[in-house]
């Protein structure tokens, strides 16, 4: 069954996270900050948003910890991935997150009615392997949109691939910018300045083994590959 789901997902989304089964790895569950993320999600009426949700494993993790799925929102350009998540987790009817089918790069979150309930209201934004898909300018634009959905206290968390030497790389879906710690800090300095907000930026550089990947999953990647676990908290 799992092989079939991955095959169907691959037809619509040819990302390594699908091909390499990264959607089955622990992700944010392995973060030392996971209890804080859970505490944020457990707040009364907390709103949770998973951007570029894919099959939605991180939200299922929160659901297993008792977070009501009615308070969850998901956004992805590819609706079929979210649908496949129901098959993978066998929870159609129980997973009640609101799905927004949108291209985050093209969507104006300040004006699009589908974001009315989210603007300035999201407590926890999950964004694993999402913003890093874009180039530098695209990442700034996407990050500023996320800030527009936030309020003081909001946490943004996730994992993303990085490179010791930060750089652009052309991928089938476009040019992506791979960060190291310094470049990600620099990007968020710009985002904070331009949005007049202050955030605590917590970046952990890890190995891909730390994520649960195996040598054969990484053979095709450059030597300076690494993982970035991020937790950003809005202070003001
Ligand atoms: C690398 S996958 C990560 C999926 C999931 N977050 C995870 O960690 O397993 C990237 C996801 O972002 C979605 N995506 C890519 N570009 C997008 C865009 N411009 N707007 C919305 N979603 C996008 C893809 O469809 C895919 O589900």
From TrEMBL:
Domain Methyltransferase, residue spans: 48-153
Q: In which pathway does it act?
A: Secondary metabolite biosynthesis
Q: Which UniProt keywords apply?
A: Membrane, S-adenosyl-L-methionine, Transferase, Transmembrane, Transmembrane helix
Q: Which organism is it from?
A: Penicillium fimorum
Which Gene3D superfamilies does the protein's record reference?
Answer: Vaccinia Virus protein VP39
| InterPro entries, sorted | Meroterpenoid_MTases, Methyltransf_25, SAM-dependent_MTases_sf
Q: CDD domains this protein is in?
A: AdoMet_MTases
Lineage, top ranks: Eukaryota, Fungi, Dikarya, Ascomycota, Pezizomycotina
Q: Where are the transmembrane segments?
A: 12-31
Protein name, entry field = Methyltransferase domain-containing protein
Q: Which family does it belong to?
A: Belongs to the class I-like SAM-binding methyltransferase superfamily.
Q: Does the keyword NAD apply?
A: no
Molecular function (GO) terms listed? transferase activity
What domain of life does the native source organism fall in? Eukaryota
């Amino acid at each position: 069954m799992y092989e079939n789901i991955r095959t169907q997902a691959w037809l619509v989304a040819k990302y390594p996270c699908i091909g390499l089964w990264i959607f089955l790895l622990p992700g944010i569950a392995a973060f030392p900050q996971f209890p804080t993320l859970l505490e944020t999600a457990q707040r009364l009426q907390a709103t949770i948003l998973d951007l570029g949700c894919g099959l939605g494993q991180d939200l299922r993790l929160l659901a297993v910890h008792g977070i009501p799925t009615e308070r969850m929102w998901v956004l992805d350009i590819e609706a079929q991935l979210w649908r496949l998540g129901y098959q993978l987790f066998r929870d159609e009817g129980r997973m009640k997150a609101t799905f927004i089918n949108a291209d985050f790069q093209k969507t104006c979150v300040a004006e699009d009615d589908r974001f009315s309930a989210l603007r300035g209201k999201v407590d926890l934004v999950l964004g694993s392997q999402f913003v890093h898909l874009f180039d530098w300018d695209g990442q700034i634009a996407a990050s500023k949109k996320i800030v527009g959905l936030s309020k003081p206290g909001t946490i943004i968390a996730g994992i993303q691939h990085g490179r010791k030497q930060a750089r652009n790389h052309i991928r089938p879906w476009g040019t992506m910018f791979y960060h190291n710690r310094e470049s990600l800090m620099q990007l968020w300095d710009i985002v904070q300045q331009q949005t007049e907000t202050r955030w605590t930026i917590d970046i952990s550089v890890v190995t891909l083994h730390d994520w649960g990947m195996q040598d054969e999953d990484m053979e095709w990647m450059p030597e300076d590959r690494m993982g970035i676990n991020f937790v950003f908290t809005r202070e003001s």
